[in-house]
Amino acid sequence: MLRDTLKKLLSVYGPSGNEHAVAETVKSLIAAHVDNMRVDAMGNLIVEKYGADENGKRILFSAHMDHIGFIVTDIDENGFLRVHNVGGVSPRISSARHVVFENGTEGVLYCQPLKGEEMAMKHLFIDIGAESRQEAEQYVLPGDMAVYAPDYFELGDHRMASPAMDDRCCCALLCELMMYLDEPKNTVIGVFSSQEEVGIRGAKTAAYSVNPDMGVGLDVTAWGDTPEVKLPAIQLGKGAAVKFMDRSMIATPAVRDALLQAAADAGVPVQREVLPFGGQDGSAIQHTRSGVPAGCLSIPCRYVHSPAEVIDLRDLEGALRILLKFVENV
Fold it and tell me: Which residues, including other chains, have CB under 8 Å from residue 83's CB and lie 6 or more apart?
């Protein structure tokens, strides 16, 4: 079930600021399993599962729907599209990649010859097969966004690769959590947030409006288990990771420890994450209003922000068991 949910979400177009198709897909998956759904002005999808205890807590989990992309800035006389990054895009990784626009127009992202310069976004262009500006404008206009074309495939028995694994794997996790919850004691709120890749924007407004008692960000984290890569000390297949710190937050000790205890109670392996860079929705939750106790549960992911982000399904399945136990324990 989790694998199928993930595959469905990975196929959907949804760069930062254009997450509506992802939200509609999530709605179709979980509408029968939640008590309330709404989309706010920022494009966040906010769902609630009411708790049986009127004195129970309000627990917020947030996973972002958006993924990195490219926005068209200009079209030259020969029909080539100049682009700028939307989120943390590596020009080196992006050259000679298959990309797609929301309307289905496909293209090849490529780099012009360099003249003693380091590769940068200004050197990249998209070829959609047009021979003139006028022809290109029949399909694409400045302001339109492209993403790495969907390309899901499996590696061995447990691992899978795809663009947008950051953070659709955690959107799938949050969908499954809402499906599995059966008359929880506490009210559980799921935020499928917008514009995380460009500054954790959606979760900021969503957390303010929801006003939870505590919150947990759900996101991927970096890896330390490939040749010559040792930090962070995170390995695929060794369990989800409870975050202690990243550049955006120091996890609230009570929430962090509750996640660790939930893993122990569920009999699930877990890793301890210290990330010297990056940020995620948990920080927006922590900083809202007068402050909210918040943490983050991370899915180890190799090659983050690339066209082939790799996770281990066992880590995702373990994370679901941790979250179910966490909700029960609070």
Answer: 70, 71, 72, 73, 109, 121, 124, 125, 126, 146
Residues 211-248: pLDDT tens digits?
999 999 999 999 999 999 998 999 999 999 999 999 99
Per 3-state DSSP, the chain is made up of helix, strand and coil in percentages (nearest 5) of 30, 30, 40
Cβ proximity of 228 and 296 under 8 Å: no
Catalytic residue (one of 19, 196, 197, 309): 196
Reduce the DSSP state of residue 192 to 3 states and report it.
strand
- Asked if 203 contacts 215 with a C-beta cutoff of 8 angstroms, the reply is no
- 3-state class (DSSP) for residue 50: coil
> Please, are residues 305 and 228 in contact by the beta-carbon 8 Å criterion?
no
Architecture per CATH, 69-148:
Beta Barrel (2.40)
Domain ranges of the chain: 2-67+164-329, 69-148
pLDDT at 1: 83
Known active-site residue 196 = yes
116 pLDDT above the threshold of 90: no
pLDDT tens-place string over residues 62-71: 999 999 999 9
Nearest alpha carbon to residue 236 among 296, 298, 281, 282: 298
Listed in order, strand segments (DSSP E) in the chain are: 36-39, 45-49, 58-64, 69-75, 81-86, 97-101, 106-111, 124-127, 145-148, 153-155, 159-162, 187-193, 214-221, 240-245, 270-274, 294-300, 309-312
Distance CA 199, CA 196 (A): 5
If one looks up domain 2-67+164-329 in CATH, what number appears? Answer: 3.40.630.10
